[in-house]
Amino acid sequence: MKLSLVTPCYNEAPCIRPFWEAVRALHLPCELEFVFVDDGSKDETLIQCRTLAKEDPAVHYLSFSRNFGKEAALLAGLRNATGDVVATLDVDLQHPVTLLPEMLREITSGAYDCVAARRTNREGEPWLRSQCAKLFYRVLNGISEIEVRGGETDYRMMTRQVVEAVLSLQEVNRFTKGIYAWVGFRTKWLTFENVERFAGTTKWSFFGLVRYAFQGISAFSVAPLQLASVTGALSCAAALLYLAYVVVKTLIMGEEVSGYPTQVCLILFFGGFQLFAIGILGNYLAKTYLETKRRPPYLIKEKH
Ligand code: UDP
Ligand code: MG
């Protein structure tokens, strides 16, 4: 049996060798294949991969023509992995490789198709960031048919069948956590404590995460598109009631012109809301536009 380890790497030169050593030190009871995906790094990542590949025939690597993002790197890794069982994990050792033997046992026992790892804490992360993450998962689960757990990571091991299922989803805008939830299969959950990365810094900025959140929601839910219809219907109903009230009141008490502040508030509110709703529409339209172009999600410059 062969196990492929898919690791996206963006400016991770100091982590590559320690990662490889940590995995080798486990002496896993199967054939190994390393698939390092260099996501257009600007440092020595590719050189490190080349050196390792010369030392260890099990090391393979792909190098993108530029930075295409982690989701694209994971996709490329999964497409190129040849193992019967495939694991995806970060190269910065934040996904403890010590979980691999247990994951492998669960998969080979045949009881599960997929083993996923979840962080139990978010220590070392800014408070605002973890609160926003929690809110994001609550919203996503509430308005989509999929269920993504808080603390869920991209650390997974899966059978070839699950890999094929994940690859059968053709979308370019890939939100991998949602894709795993969507394809289903029997999934075993393991937990681990958050650890600091081995070297270097995180590639995520706060706004990068906000963009990621919108990407996740628009990939798996169309609920925001219905927001305008629901609010529109409600405000129409309110307007009709108010109209009846005004007519009756005028008939009984005579005409009276007032309510300037009310008008200003209503115009501003509905003007703002309409622009907001058009913005959401535009967001989905943009996604549709990008999907219909069918551009490749990444370009490979070098492959070994
Ligand atoms: N990564 C990538 N492309 C990117 C950003 C990140 O391949 O554009 C990789 C990165 O090298 C690492 C993994 O994705 O192996 C997770 O990134 P990072 O550690 O920065 O995220 P965090 O652990 O802070 O969530
Ligand atoms: Mg990390």
UniProtKB/TrEMBL annotation:
Q: Name one GO cellular component term.
A: plasma membrane
Per UniProt, residues of the Glycosyltransferase 2-like domain are 4-165
The UniProt transmembrane annotation reads 227-248, 260-286
Query: Which keywords annotate this record?
Result: Membrane, Transmembrane, Transmembrane helix
The protein's name in its UniProt record: Glycosyltransferase family 2 protein
Originating organism: Candidatus Spyradenecus faecavium
